Amino acid sequence: MELGPPGGSGPAEPGPRLRGLRGADAAASASSLSRFGAEAGCRAPAVAAVLPAGGSGERMGVPTPKQFCPILERPLISYTLQALERVSWIKDIIVAVTRENMETMKGIIQRYQHKRISLVEAGVTRHRSIFNGLKALAEDQPNCRLSKPEVVIIHDAVRPFVEEDVLLKVVTAAQEHGASGAIRPLVSTVISPSADSCLDHSLERARYRASEMPQAFLFDVIYDAYQQCSDYDLEFGTECLHLALKYSHIKAKLVEGSPDLWKVTYKRDLYAAESIIKERISQKVCVVMDTKEDEEHVGHCLEEMLKTELNHVKVTSGQDLQQIILEQCYNFVCVNVMTSDFEETQRLLNMLEESNLSILYPVVVISVHFLDYESVPLGQKMEKVMQIREFAKEAKKRNILLSGLLIYFPQLL
Amino acid sequence: MELGPPGGSGPAEPGPRLRGLRGADAAASASSLSRFGAEAGCRAPAVAAVLPAGGSGERMGVPTPKQFCPILERPLISYTLQALERVSWIKDIIVAVTRENMETMKGIIQRYQHKRISLVEAGVTRHRSIFNGLKALAEDQPNCRLSKPEVVIIHDAVRPFVEEDVLLKVVTAAQEHGASGAIRPLVSTVISPSADSCLDHSLERARYRASEMPQAFLFDVIYDAYQQCSDYDLEFGTECLHLALKYSHIKAKLVEGSPDLWKVTYKRDLYAAESIIKERISQKVCVVMDTKEDEEHVGHCLEEMLKTELNHVKVTSGQDLQQIILEQCYNFVCVNVMTSDFEETQRLLNMLEESNLSILYPVVVISVHFLDYESVPLGQKMEKVMQIREFAKEAKKRNILLSGLLIYFPQLL
């Protein structure tokens, strides 16, 4: 796991960074959601993403289109947008939604503070929606806020668990080959039925793959393909790699993806997504501390211990707390020195309150306090202990579960 | 929803019954798990099922083979066996497990009281396991407890949500065509990669289907195919329909299955399965009452009301309670008349205790009592109310949540 130095500005999520792409200094780039193009000396391509989100979700068997189905009260598409937003080198994200869902989508963007999103109207089919998204990015469009990217990622609104590393792989492969897509082994054997619903033949499973998302293309390759393609393609086709092959004669590079890339299709997939999100929440903790040297040592001890139990342990001195909260970290260990009077914890509680994070799910904060046993009188100690209980009572009203932990300072160091 | 008459012996689960197969009197048959052949005048085929359960579950990313992974503390395969056991016309169920898991499997059969199960040793591949299962059913085997069926169902241990209607469809189609299998639309486009991991071609999604389970075969068709097939088939093949086509020249009839047929493959599928099982538990209620006429009327009122909220409402006079408990009904409404002194409720509580059902998940029992307000003195009424609280205290120790409901008898009727 890659972690930034405490007090520094390490990447928000572990995984390969843009330096893997073109040798650019991406650690700095990834530390904020600033536009990729603004980074000096960076030779990575300008990248945009298009998300068709006009589907009706008829396979789900529920009236709400699946991309808007709530998971822990938050719409599925918001998780997907967050996954893309975490990747600082994706400059623009174009979402195609139907006219009737336009206001819903705007509400989601506002509520969850999504950035870099542009909305276009979805077409009646998946391909038409993607085409609309590409048109918005093409140079000849009047919408001057957007500019034509070198590489465009196409992803599904209903694949919320896409990670930066697979996005990086398809973008890199698209730069080299013109087109690229994630694939997975087939779970079931694929068969061809005859007209009378009998088996005509079955395909040898090992020779085929399931084509998944994300896919990436040199913008001109896929845009040219869409401009040439037939009404039949636009109506009945679903596969962008096929269009790139048929019209731009580009054989896409195929990249093995992780099982996480699966598409939320059926109701059971919503259940699975919810469990995965809950599991991730429980596996993610942020240790907040100021930059005093003593604490840094404590922070590292704590980090090492937590890492034996949890997947995502982040230590911060507090500068990037806003970003960490935005990325749905629900567990915090906040280290204060006794003399600082809960300053760090109070600051964190204020930020959490402003973020509305705890509306969705309770946030757990453990406020750690160091105490030099010999130099502080007992009365003062107890006063502090009672103070945290008052804080906790107030915090609980806002769904923040605050606990205090008192540590005898000299014993620890 | 099909429901048996109150006090009668209706089918344990809704859905088409064997009368749909051959006009046999299946309601009676389905009311118990008695062997199909024992039913008089029934012309339906002798049916057995083979479940390969020798997989290692490497795609799951967990050390336990997926068929043994616990869902609500109960192994996945036990749910699948239960789904097959509910179908009274399946005579024998052959499970192929590896030698190292043989004792585990025996333990599961004993703990969850599975019936009609025979174990055979799994081969190193799926096809070899199925072949071993078929051999055990073939006439020339020394194991005389089993006899050769006319039709054999092949199902996966990791598809726990198979319903009787699809089993009926594949068995009926196999009788007519020699072979049959459930299919589903493809979720992803299927592509063929070239040797250098580039796209060679993509398949038109609408022209192909995913081959799922269950499948059914005339026993001789599939057994002959397995006897002829090559080592290569046995090592690298996975598709029984393909073997029936290649060696027995039978084009299987394809039957559209429901989304429930999906295979538990990844960890996320375990999450989904758990949520589905929990949802089913919450949607299933059994109303227990004795056969007094008054109560029958009440029972029907209650049934109608409950059916507006819940999917599975069963009314019983108590004879088949054992079976209902075995089928994991966790919610009971038990109707007593005041004079009978909680007899029905006490009997139900005793049976629940014996069944160990509540080890897995809390069982909810609402004990309903009718009271002729005018004829019973207040003191006696309160005595009864206190009595249910004592029962509830005891029941709670065994994870049974008992509530009492007192209804003024004359007002209701």
From TrEMBL, chains A, B:
Region described as Disordered: spans on this chain: 1-24
Biased composition (Low complexity): 11-24
Any Pfam family: IspD
Major subcellular site: cytoplasm
Every D-ribitol-5-phosphate cytidylyltransferase C-terminal domain range: 283-411
Gene Ontology MF: a single term: D-ribitol-5-phosphate cytidylyltransferase activity
One GO cellular component term noted in the UniProt record for this chain: cytosol
Coiled coil: none
Keyword rRNA-binding found: no
This enzyme's EC code(s): 2.7.7.40
Oligomer status and interactors: Homodimer.
PANTHER family according to UniProt: D-RIBITOL-5-PHOSPHATE CYTIDYLYLTRANSFERASE
Protein name: D-ribitol-5-phosphate cytidylyltransferase
Source organism per UniProt: Bos mutus grunniens
